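In response to a reviewer's request, we include the raw inputs and outputs for one of the modeled complexes. The two entities were modeled together in a single run.
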Amino acid sequence: MQNRPTHLIETMNIFAAVGRVILALFAAAGRLAIFMLDGISHSLRPPIYWKVILQEMIGVGYFSLPVVGLTAFFTGAVLCLQIFIGGSRYGAESFVPQIVVLGITRELGPVIAGLMVAGRVSAAIAAELGTMRVTEQIDALTTLSTNPVKYLVTPRLIAGVVSMPILVAIADAIGVLGGYVVATRALNFNSSVYLKNTANFVTSGDVSSGLTKAAVFGFIIALMGCYNGFYSKGGAQGVGAATTNAVVSASILILASNYLMTSLIFTR
Amino acid sequence: MNGVPKIELRGVKKSFGRKLVLDGVNLSIQPGDSIVIIGGSGTGKSVTIKCVLGILRPDAGSIKVEGQEVTGLHGRNRDAYLRKFGMLFQGAALFDSLPVWENVAFGLIQGHGISRRRAREIAMEKLAKVGLGADVANLSPAELSGGMQKRVGLARAIAADPEIIFFDEPTTGLDPIMADIINNLIATTVRDLGVTALSITHDIASARKISNRVAMLYKGKIIWDGATAEMDHSGNPYLDQFIHGSAVGPIKMEVRQ
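The model returned the following structure tokens for the whole complex.
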């Protein structure tokens, strides 16, 4: 009999625990939404920090070129090889150039570039802003009459949205090149026929859908890096956690939003 | 010393989660005062300053600067309000992506819209005031020692000729000689510029040197407030224990939070 009240309290504790988790989730979602809107709204109001935007674009775009280029090349190469192997079962080897260019421009170019840049740039942004938070540099910005969101977050969001499509356009070209190299060197495709089939098949819609995705991914990468860095706490450990969270959340959001966008763009 | 106080805090409360940090802080600071808030670690000294600057928003109470309520200011009004202030942060909080001179000139360029060329000239002047030559202007903050970083932080705090300067633990982490140099710099800066200064520290030697008034914060309240000269004869056991740095006394350190 004596156990009863404690048993009841324990049951209540489960509800309380679930409630607490759900409340925390809503609070985090709300905080992220406010943070995002704040960051976007500052892009419409002067002053706009062009110099910071340019610096970040170089960081996001230019310095990501080698790693994105290499991954795109090998992705195109392996895609070509697998399609050839799979297609040869049905005598469909001749469709290799078409499927490679479609796969690269629509899906793999933006997604692979997005994931690589998420690992590189989200982490870097979260680490930088996180360190600025724990060393009070973000507070220092406020005391110098500078809005930290306007100075730190908005330029990175703009840089992400602008540089990712450029990066993905280059990745598309390199990915197709990777397929071309394997097809012509290893699989005995005629090089001019391969290029002609590629060029005739691909439409501007394929490329532009990929570039639209890239812009969204750029936004996600910058937002997750900024959000996690901006609200990090607790010294080196906190900055480490912020960096991990930034990369993980950016990667998941990229893959989830990619599915959403594909279903919106291609299944109308 | 009558008239409108420069800064006035009335019943300021702030808690983080369940932890009550400020429990009704009352403090009024007259123009030209140099006041030091002393107190142990974690007693809410930094939180007090951050509430005045609007970095943190108090849960209750009022903060007035020159008679104007400032809690809840935002946007342009807040930027304008913050132009009155300069702040030296505990770790200097220099922007490590910018060279020293741009750190000092940052508020001038971004907050006051002064041209880069003019801002650089002013920055060099201020650097000279804190005893740093033109040779450090183009270095990155990471290349400087802790004491030099503090000086640059001080130069940045006074760059825009503020009316009020906050010093957050100005001597923490410095060797005794460098600490004394920084203390002297603060004392002369405050005197020469005629500003109102609010410092927080747990360094009693520093407090004696840079202040004319002392307030002690304990358990979220100001428990003693008076002239620095009278600090030794206060008869307040808490203050006495703190001044003498004794483990024995009414203040029990909460090791577990």
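As requested, we also summarize the result in words. Chain A has nine helices and no strands. The mean pLDDT of chain A is 87.
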